[in-house]
UniProtKB/TrEMBL annotation:
CDD domains: PA_C5a_like, Peptidases_S8_subtilisin_Vpr-like. Keywords: Cell wall, Hydrolase, Protease, Secreted, Serine protease, Signal. It comes from Shouchella lehensis G1. It comes from the Bacteria. Residues 143-537 form the Peptidase S8/S53 domain. The active site is at residues 152, 192, 485. GO terms for biological process: proteolysis. InterPro entries: PA_dom_sf, PA_domain, Peptidase_S8/S53_dom, Peptidase_S8/S53_dom_sf, Peptidase_S8_Asp-AS, Peptidase_S8_His-AS, Peptidase_S8_Ser-AS, Peptidase_S8_subtilisin-like. Coiled coil: none annotated. Belongs to the peptidase S8 family. One of its GO terms (molecular function) is serine-type endopeptidase activity. This is Minor extracellular protease.
Amino acid sequence: MTKRGTVYRLLLGILSVLILLQGMSMAMGVNGVALAAENQQPTIDSSKRVVIVSASGDVNRAVDVVENRISSAMIRNIYENVYGGFSLEIAEKDIERLKQLSVIARVDDVAHYQPSLEGSIPFIGAGDRLMDKQDGKERLLTGKGVKVGVIDTGVDYKHPDLEANYRGGYDIVDQDDDPMETKKSQGEPTLHGTHVAGIIAANGRIKGVAPEAEIYAYRALGPGGQGTTEHILEAIERAFKDDVDVINLSLGNTVNGPDWPTSLALDRVVEKGIVAVTSNGNSGPSMWSVGSPGTSTKAISVGASLPPVEVPVINVNGLKDELTLTPILGAKSWQLKASFELVDVGHGLLTDYKGKDVKDKLVLMKRGRSNFAEKLALASKAGAKGVLIYNNLEGAFAGAVTEPIPITGATLSKTEGEALRSLLKQRKHKVKVDTQYKVKQDLMAPFSSRGPVTETWEIKPDLVAPGVAIQSTVPKGYLDLNGTSMASPHVAGAAALLIEQHPDWSPEQVKSALLNSTKRLQDEQGKEYLPFEQGAGRLQVDKAIQTRTLISPATLSFGELEKGEGVVEKEVTISIENISKSTKEYTIDPPIGEVDGISWEFEEKVTVKGQSKKAFTLQATIDQHAIQKGLHTGYITVRDKDEDIHLPYMLFIEEPNYPRVMAFQMAHSDKANGYYYEYYLPGGAEESSVHLFDPDTLEFVATIIENQDQGRGMVNGEIDNLQVAPGRYKALIYAKNEGKTDILEAMIHIGEEWIGP
């Protein structure tokens, strides 16, 4: 292949693993456990205890007294505001001495929580004692005999927790039979596929969801976790030829469209009998942020929720509300205990530190103008204790660095960061930051991408599963990671258990069982997440294997409808399958009266004989004048005497306000001043263009791309001779369609070194 073809192929098809590294260190501890040379298990120091201490007076004075008088005491967390005490690790022999101190009111033992598969797997109803009790018999479900293909960065098949279940695969990147993870000698090393495989089927120190499933590894993503559409398609093809039962793809791009090749490939492979499970993306929490292949109609797209996890929360004097932090992954784990002063350092550039004392303080900086690694490195060199980076765009974000950096860091939303910056400007006194650690569960992970899908208006994700602080296997050890990449294999493992239980089931039946049995989640204010955020709800494996009814489709879309004066009828056909041996009578309960302008016609009762299925039609009659514009969503309930099954639905009135342009990329061509470019138009555009601005002054520089009357899909082309001075620019990608406009921001580099043929 020519150099031009290779560059263009990489540009048009690039995919990356959907991963958020919580900590890159492989040292023994909460975030990573390294295997010893002879695979020995780490030892625990039983001579020490962790306790919670309540102070009798001033907390900081109590901390000072304990540290000065008890040499074995190591302060862990200070809870000055919410408890009036602190936690510490202390030698067992010094416990009584601690209790006798006048500054101490009481001492309590603490229950340790270590986020791991031992936490997330029982939480979703799976684990060592998951029993199939159908037909009056009992048998343990482990995924035995079920073949699961992991399309990823490869797998460390020599890992002691995976070697027994590894059965083979293929390296698509190097075109050989050795799908080992990328090693340092080959480029930027990887670990992602091994982590995913462990969640599915680890069977050693930790156990996956289906610990006896067979793992087939397909290395489609090479050094640094990068690969192309071509790689992914070949991996899917090979998995099909290897006759796998389930494939997991914890990868994706930012194209929210149902017709991207990887999405279509998953639709096809599901039709051919393979259960396809894919991550929904880590671009949340904005609506429309799901990317391909998570947009596949027939695959199971998985978002991320919280298992029981301890998260850092900061309180700032002068702010009413506490702020939940998202740790920067690859930086030092956020384990700050004391109170620290906060200093604003602009964008965190070298010039921003001039005249500022940040030693042993927290620094606040804005995202942009340098990468995360550069920001953290400069803060560390300046002696800062930690870094808070707030977004330069609306919403939250998750940052990561590829190499470990010895300073703690976390991210905040734009609103939160600007509130802190305003406080620093207003207050005459020092602004102090205190960290608390709270256990949260069954909340949506803020980074989890939201739907729906453009064009089809389908609900995505289909469901959610734990994707925060998930400990699993990595080369030579174990590590906690965050991401929808970690949520997806929980569902793939659950699918393996269902296939073991029902080897004759189709992918559609497996999908229905998983979605029909979920738990609907609420946010911290008690408000239920919308279907395009959580799909049908959170995975419950124990409920899925007990289900006696399968309803398909498990999520419903009534599409998009314009306002008007008439009445329009929208119909969906719903299938009820009774897998029990007895006749069941089902009651259909649509949300009558919940939305003005919609009336429902349906069969109130549907009788289905044992081990048979029956279809019924649900019709929504929509008064185009009476109904309000916007998104209408809710649940249609199908119930019998044993269970209620809730089917989420969505209907858009007027064309939704989805992004008119997305997924912009630009790269050098094989000409000295030549560049390839691409961007995706979900609904087409009457006009689209790309404009460059100075990133510091925002002064207009040039318009470099202009296109007219483009249809829906990917727009790509080549700039032959770009006459722009070398440097870094803010690019604004503009699109207009049917009177609606949208602008996408991106940072690009012009004038990087070109190497001729």
